[in-house]
Amino acid sequence: MNPILLTLLAGLLLAGPFSAGAQDDVRPVHYRKSIDDLTPAELEAFKHAVAELKSKSQLNVYDRSGYLWQSWVHDCPAVQVNQTRAAPLSAQDLQQVLANPNRNSCDVRGFLDFGPGIDTRFHPEHPGECEHQKNTFLQWHRAQLYYFEQALRASDPDGQRGPSTRDVALPYWNFTRKPSGVRYPQAFEDPDSPLFDATRIRARLPSAMATASPYLLAYQIYYMDWPEFGGDEYGSNGGGALETRIHNHMHAFYIGGNMADNATAGMDPLFYAFHNFLDYSLEKWLDEHGDAGITGDGRSAQMRAQQDNKLPKPIGWSAGSAGTLPAADSYTPHMGQADLYFDTIKQGYGYQPPYGGEFIRRNAIQRLIDAHQGAGFVFGDNQKSLFAALLSDDAADGPVGQPSITVGSKYAIPTATGTTKRYLRLQRKADAPDYSFQADVYLHPGQPRIADKTFRDRYLVSSTSHWGLSGHGHGGALCIAIEVNGIINSLVPTHHGAAWHLTAAVTTNERGAGQISKADFELPVISANGCAPVPHQH
């Protein structure tokens, strides 16, 4: 492209909101930036918008543009609403709801004071339900963030009570970089800020440590197709790699508090900046692969949530089978079809820096792969497995040296390479409790030596995390399948016929400490069968 034209385009991208084109329904495009890159004025406007949403919930917990309802969109399949849709909450009571991860915020009768003059005739409404462990995980959260950003802008657009919120763009937190604060971005660690949440884990990180590996994230973006990256059609593999190997670990093990449970996660303002970086990762994946590989309900499913009808809907939205909205209680019955959100510019937002500037480049990941042989695994002296190398030594999401339990089985290395895919399968039994866990899986000769870092580096096949999902019917059997054909083929030339071992080192967090048991898991196996498809309902 002409360098002068490139310069002009770059200037437009960095200039802030602008018109996306000459269509009839055109949105000004706001560029989402890192929370650490906001100007002081932009940060104050964002903080004011969050504070305004909380004030709206104080005036009326049922205000769909308020902070509680926007949190319920993620956290609560149903809440009991009184007939007048009006119930105030004091600032102190709101803070108690936000600061107690053990309180069921979906049960309004557990914290509302229905005194004289407050209607106590209830009916159920359905704020939403987060999508997890399926191929609509990223699209649903993208739609949720779209509406949350609209609510932020609508909170005080004329600046009557503080800085104007008209042009607020939801910031993201790049958690693959060393945090600017003790453990999180500085803006989220100020106890006097509306962005603060006292329930989070607040332990200081070692000075050089990032929170999650940028190499693993970039590998997923560049080298995984949609079912592997974003989730398969039936949700039978516990979700796509971005969800299971990055998202789940951050929720359950790194952040904790409200974020440790899907029924309270939306209460923490950090939730939105955290998921916004996952949305940026989705955008980078779409830049690399396009959306043609996203099929079935990954395109057509309606994103469940009841939103305020005054908030701008995504371009192309239609009520569809939802029919006519009740005139006396106008709301948006869903957030639209998944594929409406594939084009963010059309819907009024993009990311800064554009073109994936927060991510490690493809050629750097390719060099790392080449160093570990394209097959994906090498067992030479002092040689890390590819997966261990992707995690790197300076990230907090590496394998655990002292797991809660280990479960193991034997595996005979084949006598010949093959083209048929083989899967490593780890299955939690149907009657097991649904606690969060991280599973580091090793393929190795001899007995496991999990406490030995050299062992972990050399024989780690994969690491994945499950986020225990309370109250959403996600308990019971859970199957995790990881394609390992390249790994097995790389062992055949020198180890064919040898008897090796599969060891799954499983670690839970505080909430699961009293529940985890070896009996909860089937023995890990490698076979041509992954996880059987389990149809699900949206």
TrEMBL record:
InterPro entries: Tyrosinase/Hemocyanin, Tyrosinase_Cu-bd. It comes from the Bacteria. The keyword Signal applies. Residues 132-149, 268-279 form the Tyrosinase copper-binding domain. Residues 1-22 form the signal peptide. Keywords: Signal. One of its GO terms (molecular function) is oxidoreductase activity. This is Tyrosinase family protein. The lineage of its organism: Bacteria, Pseudomonadati, Pseudomonadota, Betaproteobacteria, Burkholderiales.
